[in-house]
Amino acid sequence: MPGLLEGKNALILGVANRWSLAFAIARAFRREGAEVVLTYQGERQRATVEDLADELGAAAVLACDVTSDENLDRLAADLKSSPGRLDCVVHSIAFANREDLARPFLETSRSGYLLAQEISSYSLVAVARAAAPLMRSGGSIITLSYLGASRVVPNYNVMGVAKAALEASVRYLASDLGPKNIRVNAISAGPVKTASARGIKDFSKVLSGVAQKAPLRRNTDPGEVADAAVFLASELGRGVTGNVLFVDAGFQVMGL
Ligand code: NAD
């Protein structure tokens, strides 16, 4: 049986290591027959991401720091020469200063606030603008969000505000790109132990709280997030745009 993403070319930003949600998504995309191009943020990540790309049989590995317009322009130019056409883009990128994920939100500095917004929210707009011209047959852009966008989660702070802006950006981009049959959605994942998550103070308490209270009484598996991304990237998701899909063992429906 052909895979759900057979014949599709996907760009996946945000693999730092094998625990990255982007890596789980890349693996699921390969399983479903997609060709994938991975990016790495900087030289420090290069060797790791190249090894993971080999393991997956990725078509290419390209450099891209999303704070650099020059990097984004070069990425678009490289993708234009190969693979030439994109069908899916996965934006799995976020960053905030560690101190802003530990002290009261009230103490957030102007520079820390702007940094979190630039990398975790604006970059989706910049990436969508770079990729959309290559999505000539339509396509699917997927980003990763978290419940902290709409609820107060201890220590998530400035990142919650960035995720709120990210989710609003999903809706505006969906409106702009819908006429080109490009769909834009977010997956709001339950907490998963990754390098980024470890930067949040008392993250292990969040994990144990979710496992106790979520309707499914467990935490989220990265493979579940990846399979939701397959759905959104595939023809099965063709009617879905501007949405935030929760893949969180149901935690978000609970009151107390
Ligand atoms: P991760 O640390 O593996 O991935 C974060 C990625 O962001 C890394 O690859 C890093 O290199 C990249 N990045 C940061 N700054 C960048 C820049 N300037 N240019 C390019 N790339 C940059 O952690 P993850 O948990 O897999 O995070 C992926 C996404 O999932 C993030 O948006 C995160 O907020 C979101 N998310 C994570 C969880 C969780 O609990 N782990 C839950 C919900 C949503």
Gist of the model:
42% of the residues lie in helices and 15% in strands.
- Count of individual domains: 1
Ends: how far apart? 44 Å
Q: Any ligands, ions or cofactors bound here, and which?
A: nicotinamide-adenine-dinucleotide
Choose one word for the global shape.
globular
Q: Helix/strand/pairing class, anyone?
A: alpha/beta
Average pLDDT number: 97
Counted by DSSP, the helix tally is 8
Kindly state the number of beta strands. Answer: 7
CATH topological fold name: Rossmann fold
Using only C-alpha atoms, the radius of gyration works out to 17 Å
Which band does the percent of strand residues land in? 5-15%
Low-confidence stretches: none
Can you walk me through this structure?
A seven-stranded parallel sheet has the order 3-2-1-4-5-6-7, sandwiched between helices. The protein has eight helices and seven strands, in the order βαβαβαβαβαβαααβ. The chain has helices spanning about 20-30, 45-55, 70-80, 110-130, 155-175, 195-200, 205-215, 220-235, and strands at about 10-15, 35-40, 60-65, 90, 140-145, 180-190, 245. The model has no long low-confidence stretch (mean pLDDT about 95). It has about 260 residues and is α/β, with parallel strands linked by helices. It has one domain: NAD(P)-binding Rossmann-like Domain (Rossmann fold). β1, α1 (about 20-30) and β2 form a beta-alpha-beta unit. α1 (about 20-30) packs across α8 (about 220-235), α3 packs parallel to α4 and α4 packs parallel to α5. The chain binds nicotinamide-adenine-dinucleotide (NAD). The site of nicotinamide-adenine-dinucleotide has 26 residues, from α1, β5 and α6.
